[in-house]
Amino acid sequence: MSDGSIGLMWMDAQALTFRYIPGYQYPEGSPQRSIDHEPSTWVPSMVAAFNGGFHLRDDVGGYFYEGQLVKRLRPGLASLDITTAGRISVGVWDHTINSTSGFEVIRQNLPPLVRHGRAQAYPGESNSAWGQSNGGISTANRTALGELRDGTVVFAYGSDVQAYELADALVRVGVRTAVMLDMNKSWPTGFYYVPNGSSAPHGHRILPLIWREPTTYFHQFKKDFIVAESTPPR
């Protein structure tokens, strides 16, 4: 057991619209829409934001965005999925989903961290089993997204944790399926926002230990991220 901390953020998938913003550098070779370069199309309505996945070169799964299959989707791997109507879910290719039809993005990242309500990460696994940490040590800053039976999604940020600790935390709150997201010192994030009149919303870290500022996603970023907006899916 590490001495790390874990913060969780619940999001009502029925009351919010979710949007995927590819990074200007990662995922490698990603399509780009014109609105992906226009923060004014997401900042005014954002109520939460969090990081995406690993580099594609890490070979941890496939990637589909904006009608293009950038990297082959692999059976059995977990994914963060957003439909063209802005609905978010956590899927497992060839199990819970088997078509890109109707999806804006399918972003795979390793096998499921949680499957059928059970943790798939365990104490004693190799330090690289769920992504190589800086320096090869056993703990790292890690993030994951889980889905409950009713469709609610829970984002988890763990500071200086092992993968099984993040999985166990999600299982304890009822998550049925979870996908691991990014890791290491500065890439993991997790923010929520409150309206601030005509100015940009006021952001807060879901855990004080998060390295980056809540303003990080007020513009396009080097790596991909997800924004939750205060409008219900179409």
Textual characterization of the structure:
The structure is a single chain. This protein has 234 residues and is mainly β. 4% of the residues lie in helices and 39% in strands. The chain contains one helix and 16 strands. The chain has one helix spanning 163-172; strands at 5-11, 17-21, 46-51, 63-65, 68-71, 78-83, 88-92, 103-108, 114-115, 118-119, 140-148, 153-161, 175-183, 191-196, 199-205, 225-229. The protein has a five-stranded antiparallel beta sheet with strand order 2-16-3-14-15, with no helix packed on it. A hairpin with a 2-residue loop joins strand 14 (191-196) and strand 15 (199-205). It is globular, with a radius of gyration of 16 Å. The protein starts with a strand and ends in a 5-residue tail after the last strand. The relative contact order is 0.27.
Provide a quick synopsis of the model.
With 234 residues, the chain is mainly β.
Adjacency order of strands in the biggest sheet: 2-16-3-14-15
Uncertain runs are: none
Helix content: under 10%
pLDDT averaged residue by residue: 95
Largest sheet: 5 strands, antiparallel
Global geometry = globular
- SSE string, helix = H, strand = E? EEEEEEEEEEEEHEEEE
Report the end-to-end length measured between terminal Cα atoms.
43 Å
The beta-strand count equals 16
SS-based structural class? mainly beta
Enumerate how many helices there are, as a single number. 1
User: Nearest-angstrom radius of gyration?
Assistant: 16 Å
The multimeric state of the shown protein is single chain
Strand content: 35-45%
